[in-house]
Amino acid sequence: MGPRDADPTLATLIEYGHGAEAFQETHFTSLTDGEDYQPRHPLLWLNLHGLANIDLLKVVGRRFGLHPLVLEDILNTEQRPKVEVFNGYVFICLRLVSVNEQGEICSEHVSIVLGRNYVLTFQEQPSGTFNQIREGLKSSQSQLRRFGSDYLVYTLLDKLVDRYFLVLEALSERCEDLDDAISSGPNPAQLQEIQALRRTMQYVKRGLWPLREVMNTLQRDEADFFRDETQLYLRDVYDHVVQMIESGEALRDLVNSLQDNYMSLQSNRMNIEMRRLTVLTTIFMPLTLIAGIYGMNFEVMPELHWRWGYFAVLGGMAVIGLSLTLYFRAKRWF
Amino acid sequence: MGPRDADPTLATLIEYGHGAEAFQETHFTSLTDGEDYQPRHPLLWLNLHGLANIDLLKVVGRRFGLHPLVLEDILNTEQRPKVEVFNGYVFICLRLVSVNEQGEICSEHVSIVLGRNYVLTFQEQPSGTFNQIREGLKSSQSQLRRFGSDYLVYTLLDKLVDRYFLVLEALSERCEDLDDAISSGPNPAQLQEIQALRRTMQYVKRGLWPLREVMNTLQRDEADFFRDETQLYLRDVYDHVVQMIESGEALRDLVNSLQDNYMSLQSNRMNIEMRRLTVLTTIFMPLTLIAGIYGMNFEVMPELHWRWGYFAVLGGMAVIGLSLTLYFRAKRWF
Amino acid sequence: MGPRDADPTLATLIEYGHGAEAFQETHFTSLTDGEDYQPRHPLLWLNLHGLANIDLLKVVGRRFGLHPLVLEDILNTEQRPKVEVFNGYVFICLRLVSVNEQGEICSEHVSIVLGRNYVLTFQEQPSGTFNQIREGLKSSQSQLRRFGSDYLVYTLLDKLVDRYFLVLEALSERCEDLDDAISSGPNPAQLQEIQALRRTMQYVKRGLWPLREVMNTLQRDEADFFRDETQLYLRDVYDHVVQMIESGEALRDLVNSLQDNYMSLQSNRMNIEMRRLTVLTTIFMPLTLIAGIYGMNFEVMPELHWRWGYFAVLGGMAVIGLSLTLYFRAKRWF
Amino acid sequence: MGPRDADPTLATLIEYGHGAEAFQETHFTSLTDGEDYQPRHPLLWLNLHGLANIDLLKVVGRRFGLHPLVLEDILNTEQRPKVEVFNGYVFICLRLVSVNEQGEICSEHVSIVLGRNYVLTFQEQPSGTFNQIREGLKSSQSQLRRFGSDYLVYTLLDKLVDRYFLVLEALSERCEDLDDAISSGPNPAQLQEIQALRRTMQYVKRGLWPLREVMNTLQRDEADFFRDETQLYLRDVYDHVVQMIESGEALRDLVNSLQDNYMSLQSNRMNIEMRRLTVLTTIFMPLTLIAGIYGMNFEVMPELHWRWGYFAVLGGMAVIGLSLTLYFRAKRWF
Amino acid sequence: MGPRDADPTLATLIEYGHGAEAFQETHFTSLTDGEDYQPRHPLLWLNLHGLANIDLLKVVGRRFGLHPLVLEDILNTEQRPKVEVFNGYVFICLRLVSVNEQGEICSEHVSIVLGRNYVLTFQEQPSGTFNQIREGLKSSQSQLRRFGSDYLVYTLLDKLVDRYFLVLEALSERCEDLDDAISSGPNPAQLQEIQALRRTMQYVKRGLWPLREVMNTLQRDEADFFRDETQLYLRDVYDHVVQMIESGEALRDLVNSLQDNYMSLQSNRMNIEMRRLTVLTTIFMPLTLIAGIYGMNFEVMPELHWRWGYFAVLGGMAVIGLSLTLYFRAKRWF
């Protein structure tokens, strides 16, 4: 509960309208700058990086009339994805997932507030996720400029949701690598890896599953924040979410079957080991018995006095040993 | 995202009406041909093979007023089956599955657009799947000619859905072969096969499960694209989909029970191996002990001086060995 | 798709009304007979055995105005149980299950068409399932005569559904026999039997589960084919179906626990085997070592020259062997 | 189907009203007595013990206008719990469970019919379950007397439902005893016990689960048999049922985890056994080899002629044996 | 059923209003005090610690017009969480969970009654859970004073629900500790711990799962006990409950995977043990055979007379033993 890191908060305000020149980007570094600022274009997008500057959040909250519970949810980096409709604005909570350079999956809390003609976005860290969208807004030809704030929110959601495709792909690859590794020889480190995969799946699931509900609520859109035109695009995002949830479920089944596979291969190996021991015992026991017999000290043991007795016995042993070996080889027992 | 292979796109336009002569088939090879073309019969069916020619798609999209998101979904070969109702047309996404010569299951992305008096179909490759329907249209007596575009779409859906019957049958057969193989002797290659079956099942599932929802949406048909007459036929396709989903679930249970069976048989074998080792040890250990005893060097060991001592001991050993062997045989221990 | 066997099709027409004499049974052997036939009583029941005579089916279809899809479903012996309401009649598909003399469960496709004053039944084979109902109709006092065609359909459904009780009972018995057999000693043949039971359960499930939906649809009865009076009876059949589905689920849990049980008992046996081997080794290894020690050829080994050395060692061996044996017996290790 | 035992049927009629004296209890022993009987108080409760006297049932059925299907359900001792609303009365089927002296769980079929001013109850056997309620009715101060027949039915339901608490508690205790027994040493008899627990759970489940639906239907009470006042009490019973179903589910999870536990402990023991064998082999094999080496008959074996050779070897053996033993002890391997 | 411990019951009455001075706290020690008491401020909060004084409960019940079933539920310390709307008040049952000093999870039954301008709370024991809220009420600036009784109930619910976060965190930690312990070496005590975790999870689940329904019912708030303002806060509590249920489910999956992991690691160890035995047998068996061969008593055994025979054999043995050891080491078999 509360910001996880303390980057200096930096607010970026983008004002835009339908006209070719109707675009302006302002960077705020002090609270007082922002409080007095009067925008000149009809549509606003205010982006805040870092959540440590609680005073700034409060100023923004007051200016846009946000409910205290909204501010609380913006600050709660463990908040589950959700949509809440307030009087005059919609509040959307999401998780932005990404695969870092070490191949680990990490996630970040992102909040979006959509008002009648403004969009507020709150990120934990200054990641460059929205840069592309900002560039798009600069071009006066782009759909982003022609459509309203609701279309901007769609673009943001689409961006965030598409990130899950990459994450699921990375997980799927790890899963297949692990499957190959297990098939070529199970070892306990793989169990740890299966366990780790399971946890990561759960982590992703917590960000992804609630998105279905989020998109559903947005599509129903009882307070009419999205125009019919944009609704078609939301439906598209919803489809992506459903498709990814299905992939996630399939992946989960796969991970479960990995554990089963591990156990089966373990048990297989055990069988092979057992058989090897049986084969060894079967070959050596009769030979040892024979040696033991001719090591007995009976007075009358005619074979002991035969000239070729010793060699005959050695030969016999060799024949028994070899034929047993060949027999087991033929049965492919080792 | 984007076409998987780059066959030269080829558009085929079929125009037809109720009259006996009201049928014409035109093949387009250049974009300009199509743009200027004016159809002479009331009902149209435009079929496009291959998705590489994006310009053509754009021309078609503009001519029939398709939404950009529809064009995107037509090109996205990983798109999940779905129906979307737009203003003036319904857009249907499906997967066409087939079993190739190697017995592998492969699938293809097929899109259908049903307008008030036209049908557009988009396929990844020029497979001959729809040839039979095209032939049917040529006959002025066929139901296809008498009914409208909605009935044509039903025929296409029926064709695509029926393909799943073949695929499920092929899977069911592979499953039973595997079951027999496991019962006659489990080996790790079968585990790989079970895993492969599981993946194929998931692959089929992803194409088949969403069909239930697709057919449901079409049956509700809130925008009234299908006449009551055709609705009865859609209900029939829906039934087939439900039946196939049930078969799929049954198959999945079967695959799961294969793994259980494998494990049980493995453990059974282990038991047999163990018993064999125990039997061997039980037979040879006493004999080796006896040989060891008469190999001791005590001065006073009366048996050693008996005339038939050696033979008696050999005979005793044979008796012990044989009777133990017979005992275990009788208990069917090996 | 299509009839499984080619018995000569035989149509039986029963006409009846409320009056004491209002009953007549006619057997048709040729198509033309039937086409010209004019019934004399208000209520009709036409029963067709065998589905090979497709011409007859077409004649019946034309006469009673059946939709081509209905005829298709009547012929499709793999059709899943369902109800479909058409304009003027209800079409019901069911599976008739039975346990044959070999204790195997087999099933048959039965179709029922209920019109305003007629009932059509279509069976794969001339089984005597409906004979009792036919006899009932002959008696002018029976409820069947007093009530209409809807009550006749209830009686047919009740008959078909009750068959499942017998089948589930037979399965339950097989399941308990198997449980006893496994408990008294697991062997791989039982695994085959578990697998077979599972398949049979799935087979029964496919006929039984959809019945709930069928009965539900009939009870809602939006087209008003059943009178309120008969509705009470349908509710009763619905109850039976629900009860049987619950029994089926319970049976399924039981079959699953059989496999678990098998595995546990296997592993138990393995433990016993292992222990036996350990006991054997523990007893014989020290004795063999002792024999080995006194078989060494050192010049100075005082015990070898003792008068009772040999007997003392033999005695010592016996004491060690016996005491170990008694110790393990006391611990109930073998 | 049909009564399980043939106790002489005994009908007890309790008539009561709001007044202090308005209470009378009559015992019927012959059919004719009952047929002519005219009650003097406004509210009736007729209780029938034993279901063998079918004639009596028919008389009661005729007198209170019960539907033939209701009589059938009253007689069917395997009937699943349910509610059915008929014209003028509600019919409720339940199972009365109890733990007998042997700790076994047994159940009995109980039917209740609630009319506008009468209650009929049908029990398999004359158990004293309702005695307490009968006593309550005698007191003119009791709520039972002040409220109507609907409150009497609530009291009966509450009584029957509360019985499940005892049964679940008994099962929970058996489950915990078994868990302790397994933890202190798994043996196959426990598997039988787990299996038995599972079956009992299913048995209880069949009586308990449908109660949720029963109470739900009664609460909806579309035919208005229960006054608003009594509805609050029904809601309370519903809560109890939900709570017990949750306990049942928890118990079921527990039983499943018992089997897992059994398997894990089995496998643990196997490991211990295995280790013991390995330790034994590791200790004795080198000693036996040494004895074997000095038992060889080479001419030149200097050690054999050393004075203390024998004792040195014996000492060496003891040192090896002891140090290995101590080593394994230190590693807590046996 | 009934209070679990018999602390002397102590009632605390807090009266408050919107004014700065409108706050008063009264402690009741005798029944008569309370009966005559007339409050001076518009809003009341009556808190009762301990449930042993049934007379007090009855007095409170009479004074606030509580239904007998409500009093029963307040006393039933095993009552499942629920909401019930009565005429004039809402009754809410909850479980207050906490982690005690021994790390054990324990829970307590808490009941809340919300009337139009009063709140009653009933606790099993005088825990200090609500002290903070009481302090908050003292401050005339706090939201608690500005809003009505409904907001006070929200604050109580929020407090109780937040406790589950701590409990789930404690469980999650125990789960991870156990996972580490199992990975570093499975032993049966861990099985006991897994079992204990499972039971605790079920215990928590029984308190937490029904909360979703409770919050849902409160949010629907058909009887309008909560103002729109407060509804936003209830929605927030609902979100927390959903998030915790998801964490609970994830935890449950984790506990299940612990058991799987245990089994896999056990089986792994078994494999290692088995291999060790095989390696030992493979090394010692040939050496013992060689010693046995040269212990035979044949007259003609040339090697025995070779000068360096004995040393050659010893050397050969050493070479065989060492090379086998090195071979197995290289294969990392022990």
Automatic annotation (TrEMBL), chains A, B, C, D, E:
<comment type="function">
    <text>Mediates influx of magnesium ions.</text>
</comment>
<keyword id="KW-0813">Transport</keyword>
<protein>
    <recommendedName>
        <fullName>Magnesium transport protein CorA</fullName>
    </recommendedName>
</protein>
<keyword id="KW-0472">Membrane</keyword>
<dbReference type="InterPro" id="IPR045861">
    <property type="entry name" value="CorA_cytoplasmic_dom"/>
</dbReference>
<keyword id="KW-0460">Magnesium</keyword>
<keyword id="KW-1003">Cell membrane</keyword>
<feature type="transmembrane region" description="Helical">
    <location>
        <begin position="308"/>
        <end position="328"/>
    </location>
</feature>
<keyword id="KW-1133">Transmembrane helix</keyword>
<feature type="transmembrane region" description="Helical">
    <location>
        <begin position="277"/>
        <end position="296"/>
    </location>
</feature>
<comment type="similarity">
    <text>Belongs to the CorA metal ion transporter (MIT) (TC 1.A.35) family.</text>
</comment>
<keyword id="KW-0406">Ion transport</keyword>
<keyword id="KW-0812">Transmembrane</keyword>
<dbReference type="InterPro" id="IPR002523">
    <property type="entry name" value="MgTranspt_CorA/ZnTranspt_ZntB"/>
</dbReference>
<dbReference type="Pfam" id="PF01544">
    <property type="entry name" value="CorA"/>
</dbReference>
<dbReference type="InterPro" id="IPR045863">
    <property type="entry name" value="CorA_TM1_TM2"/>
</dbReference>
<dbReference type="InterPro" id="IPR004488">
    <property type="entry name" value="Mg/Co-transport_prot_CorA"/>
</dbReference>
